Amino acid sequence: MHIPQPYLLFLGDVTDPLSAKTAKGILQWRPQLCTGQLRLSKETVSLGIPDLSLTEAKELGAKTLVVGTANAGGFIPQTWLATLQKAIELGFNIASGMHQRLISFPALTKAANAHGNQLYDVRHYDLPLKVGTGKPRKGKRLLTVGTDCSVGKMYTSLALEKEMNRQGIHSQFCATGQTGILVSGTGISVDAVVADFISGAAEAISPDFTDHDWDVIEGQGSLLNPSFAGVSLGLLHGSQPDALVLCHEIGRAHIRHLPHMEVPSIRVTLEANQIAARLTNPKATVIGICLNTSSIGEKDALVLCQQWEQQYRLPVTDPVRFGVSTIVDKLHSI
Q1: Do residues 163 and 244 share a domain?
Q2: For 43-56, how does the pLDDT look when each residue is reduced to its tens digit (9 = 90+)?
Q3: Domains in the chain: how many in total?
Q4: Does one domain contain both 161 and 33?
Q5: In the chain, which residues have pLDDT < 50?
Q6: Which of 56, 109, 225, 275 has the most crowded CB, counting CB atoms within 10 A?
């Protein structure tokens, strides 16, 4: 999946700022790709970038209208269809991370075919994939892993990519989820891949390369989550990571949505991920821990990171509060 850029970020008529997290993520990590925003009402949440009409955005070079919001159920409201239809007629591609597919609307599909545009349902993946082989390939790879779902793996991956490039380590972000795909413009949403092909999808996302230094592969799920361990294991095997970075949220009481399941310990999680990764890369090693410390104050967070560094003998940081330079420093010796 390769989505033409730059983007016009479509916010529809949502009024809950949390519903615009996809658009916010794109703007935060790839501001140069965001021509502007399109809102259907003045009450719609704003990203603080120029409001543009479809015509204005097209004149400024926007190529894809990105549905930058999420809602309960992941459906596309009927009230948005006229705007999406008009966008296609003006020459826009449409990209959406919703569960409901753009191609499920015959009028949109017909218009896209008539005007030679593409509809990108980034949460879905229908193209053929091969099973993973574990065969070594050129290039170095870093994979983010976690103690649970939604602990900051995408944010950490993008923060690492940015800092690596700042330090002169040429790196590329490899997306495995819908928001990551919209940020990068390419990738495979691995939660839409049949289990047998997850490791193969990871191999396809990060094939042989010699034109840059590192691929930073966005992790998914958690190896010790009873619901989503499968996708994590497939990524560990298919990514063949040279380096692993563990992500964890401070204060999480239990596995997300599973109050009967405790969050696994840091040490057990470190060991489990390193062992699993070494099936396809015997040299795989954990190089750092990234924490979401938003539940505690910044001073306490700094003390905690310092304590954990002593305990686990690894760089420990909160990428939002303190950056990831101490972890990236470790890559120079790999």
Answers
A1: yes
A2: 999 999 999 999 99
A3: 2
A4: no
A5: none
A6: 225
